[in-house]
Amino acid sequence: MSLASEMNQLFAGADRVATHGRSFHENLEILVEQTGSGRAAGRLLGVPETTIRRWRTGVTPRRVLDLVPFARVAASARKGAFGKVYRGEATIAIKAVIVYSSDRRERWIHIGREISRQKMQGIMRAWAGGDDERATRLMRNAIYRDYFHIEPPRAGEVDEDDQPAVTLGAITDMRIE
Fold first, then answer.
1. Buried b (16+ CB within 10 A) or exposed e, 131-146
2. What does the DSSP 8-state code read for residue 59?
């Protein structure tokens, strides 16, 4: 799984999370699902329930709204983990393939103990805004700089002889501690 999909699962508690890669109508259905009703989705967006009903039948609004932040906030509010980590009441641990020199193992690393609350809040704001690429980049950079205390490898600029001593491989799980 990717880091972004693990964050979706951790913060929203769902495999189906609103993204900019989905259509307006798909994200609307996810928003209604996350808020529990068309009426609640309408309240969140500041539109009447009848407008939500019209949009759900396929009518496209004159001004297309970016539903991703609304749906992600609604999903994360239901789960509760987002707020705890954002306020610093809980931390994150990830399970990933870590390569130390030639030793390659899947390990739990407790990144939340090392990454500052301000950096975590920036990562979480990027995720909540639907910018998965930025959230992933910020998280990877924070893991390398604050947990491993090395500069992250840059794609295409590292040759075989210049590999960092530690490499973060595939992320397989995340949890709140």
1. bbebbbebbbebbbee
2. P
Cα 167 to Cα 62, 161, 170, 174, distances in angstroms:
47, 14, 10, 18
CA distances from 39 to 16, 48, 68, 130, 145 (A): 21, 7, 18, 23, 45
- 132 with 19: CB under 8 angstroms? yes
- For residue 44, give the nearest of 15, 17, 23, 75 by alpha carbon: 75
- Look up residue 113 and give its amino acid: R
Helix, strand or coil for residue 100? strand
pLDDT tens readout for residues 72-127? 888 888 778 888 888 889 888 988 888 887 788 898 989 888 999 999 999 999 99
Which residue, chain included where needed, has tokens 């900019």? 20
CA distance 133 to 139: 10
User: What is the spatial distance between Cα 25 and Cα 52, in angstroms, rounded to a whole number?
Assistant: 10
Q: Give the Cα separation of 147 and 130 in Å (integer).
A: 25
- Give the pLDDT band (50/70/90) at residue 161: low
User: CA nearest 138: which of 156, 155, 115, 157?
Assistant: 115
**Contact (Cβ atoms closer than 8 angstroms) between residue 128 and residue 69:** yes
Task: Indicate the domain borders of the chain.
Answer: 3-83, 89-176
